[in-house]
Amino acid sequence: MAEARAAFAAFEDLGAAADADEAAAFLRDLGVRAARRQAASPSAAAQAPALSRREQEVLALLGDGLSNRDIAERLFLTRKTVEHHVRSLLAKLGVPNRAGAAAYAVRRQAGGR
Questions:
Q1: Cα angle 107-52-60, degrees, rounded to a multiple of 5
Q2: Could you give the CA distance from residue 14 to residue 9 in angstroms, rounded to a whole number?
Q3: Residues 6+ apart with CB under 8 A from 111
Q4: Which of 1, 25, 74, 95 is deepest in the core (most CB within 10 A)?
C-alpha cells in the first residue's frame, strides 16, 4: 500500500494524469481514499479533466442514457465498479449528478465544451 501511495504521489507531481488515475483507482480498490488534486493554475482548470479510458467509456454510455446496470452489462463490469466510475466522473467533471455528466458527454461529443 505504501508503494502504491508513493507511485500515486509521484504521478501527481509529474502531471501524469492517466497513471495517477490508475494509481488512485488501485488505491481505492485497496480501500484507501485517493482523490486527484485539483489543478492549481487557471489555464489547467479551463482544460477538460483527465479521464481514464474506462471513465471515458462510462461517460459516453451515460451520454447515451444508459443505467449503471446497462453500462455494467455492456462493459462486462460489476454494477459496483460502474458506480465507482460514475462517482469518480462526477467529482472530476464537477457536476452534481449523472444528468450533468450526461449533458457534459453530449456537449463533448458535439465538439463543444
A1: 35
A2: 9
A3: none
A4: 25
Residue 15 burial (C-beta neighbours within 10 Å; 0-12, 13-18, 19+)? exposed
CA distances from 42 to 39, 45, 47 (A): 8, 5, 9
Q: 98 vs 33, 87, 92, 94, CA distance in Å?
A: 22, 9, 12, 11
Output the pLDDT for position 68: 94
Using alpha carbons, select from 112, 109, 111 the residue that is nearest to residue 59: 109
**Which tens digit of pLDDT belongs to each residue from 63-113?**
999 999 999 999 999 999 999 999 999 888 888 888 888 888 888 877 654
pTM: 0.57
Name which of 17, 47, 21 is nearest 35 in CA terms.
21
Give the span between the Cα atoms of 29 and 7, in whole angstroms: 15
State how far the Cα of 73 lies from the Cα of 59, in Å rounded to an integer.
15
